Amino acid sequence: MSTYENLHGTRVNVVSSNPSNPKEGEVWYNSTSGQLKGYVLGLGSFASGGTANTARDDLMGNVGTQTASLLGGGGPGTSNTEEYDGTSWTEVNNRSTSFFRVTNNGTQTAALGYGGYSPSPSPTAPQRYSISTEEYDGTNWTAGGNFPNGVQVAGGTGVQTASFQASGIFGPYTSANWATTTNEYDGSSWSNGGAMPAGRDISSVTGIQTAAIMVGGRGSGGSPNLNAVLYYDGSSWTSQPNYPEAGHGIVGSGTQTAAMFAAGSFPPGRSTNANTWDGSAFATTGSLSTARVQGIGGGTTTAAIVSAGSTPGGATGATEEYTGGSLAVKTLTTS
Amino acid sequence: MENFLYGVAENTGKGFFTAEDRRNFFLRGYPANVWVVGNNPKGALWVADKGVFKTKSEAQALVDAEVQAAQAVWDAQTDEEKADPFNTRPSDVILP
After folding, report:
1. Model confidence pLDDT, tens digit, residues A241-266
2. Bridge partners, residue B63, by sequence
3. A175 with A220, same domain?
4. A88: domain range?
5. Are residues A14 and A117 in the same domain?
6. Can you tell me the ipTM of this complex?
7. Least CA distance to A58: which residue of chain B?
């Protein structure tokens, strides 16, 4: 069995009071309290945010920050759009389309909404899979360049003028396929990005067009659930350590090397679990209060937002705000 | 002592539960505004402040009613709607 001395080259200091300026990871024994203490990073935690006026689910992507996010459409087939200011949601101008399983990304004042599923054919979803792209400028949604092929449950991230789509189910409805194709939006049109190693859907994608991370999803054909994690550098993909669980519809926020992933469907049920990613490993953090799948993320690994999604009782407008853990003196126990 | 308390409380949004609450006690939301809360003094205060206490069986009955209503809506859909692989029938929820 290894000891602290073997691992760190020094014994645990015995002190009568906690050090005034400890270093991260420092451990000591407080002889006054009779407790082993350490200066360690605590778990992050979620607090309730304002509840969206329109409950919705079937959303993919991440928008803005914890204090400036957006919900643009979503299931069950709503065009309703709401802005979040860090306290409450306010209804603003609707999208022109109302599909299920849409993707949102960008910022509150420059967002993108695309893809989705229509229960019946429409001009922007001729084969039930939407080709529509809409741009939001903080006031109105306007038509952007059409998506190359109808797509639903697409993973998406980036800003409005440099968006990245990876994963999803592509039309037509009669012969849906899980293509490895990815697409990049430049503010006016879509073009192909680097192909994924294998097709998947309902994956969480966060980061930017040239540095994104993809987590989970379902394999081609809709199964199995995946825990595989991939990096995208703007042209090619590389594998990373697996996510702790295999699931889909996880909500991601942050960058390629500093992200927070929460919720998701991990059969047999939806999850409240959340994990942070530091560029090399996942770590469990505080959990959501409401289990959900396919909501919208946003923000950073220290201040993120998870809004809307599908709960066991149906679509929700509930929002939870994540605050990352901070360094603090903790009593170290074996439990 | 039981591990959990049960209550009904409407999520009023910002401030309904705080990060400190989450550190102080277990908290999990379920259909029908049912909340399962860690059984400690701070958890009990939260339920008392935000809503009303329920027994576990009362809380389970509320959850069952809401889930069964959602299942009935799903059952009334057309066969084509039910065939959509994303449109799964709401499953039963068992409180811990």
Report:
1. 999 999 999 999 999 999 999 999 99
2. none
3. yes
4. 45-323
5. no
6. 0.89
7. B86
Q: How confident is the model at residue A9 (pLDDT cuts 50, 70, 90)?
A: confident
Q: What is the pLDDT of residues A92-122, one digit of tens each?
A: 999 999 999 999 999 999 999 999 999 888 9
Q: Is B81 helix (H, G, I), strand (E, B) or coil?
A: helix
Which string of DSSP letters, residue by residue, matches A36-89?
Answer: EEEEEEPPPEEEE-PPPSS-BB-EEEEESBTTBEEEEEEBTTEEEEEEE-SS-E
| Domain total in chain B | 1
The answer on A130 and A37 residing in a single domain is no
The residue-averaged pLDDT of A223-233 equals 97
Are A92 and A13 within one domain? no
DSSP B4: E
Contacts of residue A128 in chain B, CB cutoff 8 Å? none
Determine, for residues B22 and A312 on separate chains, whether the beta-carbon distance falls below 8 Å: no
In a mutational test of the B interface, the residue from A43, A45, A100, A273 whose CB has the highest number of chain B CBs within 10 Å is: A45
- At A25 the pLDDT is 87
Counting residues of chain A whose pLDDT is more than 70, the rounded percentage is 99
Contact list in A for residue B17 (CB cut-off 8 A) is 47-48, 289
CATH of the domain at A193: 2.120.10.80
Cα–Cα dist B21/A46, whole Å: 9
In the three-class reduction of DSSP (H, G, I as helix; E, B as strand; rest coil), residue B79 is classed as helix
- C-alpha A12/C-alpha A9 separation (Å) is 10
In this predicted structure, what is the pLDDT of residue A1? 65
Count how many domains chain A has.
2
Q: Residue B67 sits in which domain range?
A: 4-83
Q: Are residues A20 and A84 in the same domain?
A: no
In this structure, the answer to whether residues A105 and A58 fall within a common structural domain is: yes
Best of B4, B8, B11, B16 to disrupt the A interface (most A CBs within 10 Å) is B11
Residues 6+ apart with CB under 8 A from A30: A15, A16, A17, A18, A36, A37
Residue B93 domain-assigned (yes or no): no
Chain B interface with A: residues with Cβ < 8 Å:
11-19, 21-23, 27-32, 63, 66-67, 70, 81, 85-86, 90-91, 93
Looking at the structure, tell me whether residues A57 and A153 fall in a common domain.
yes
Chain B contact set for A51 (CB, 8 A): 11-13
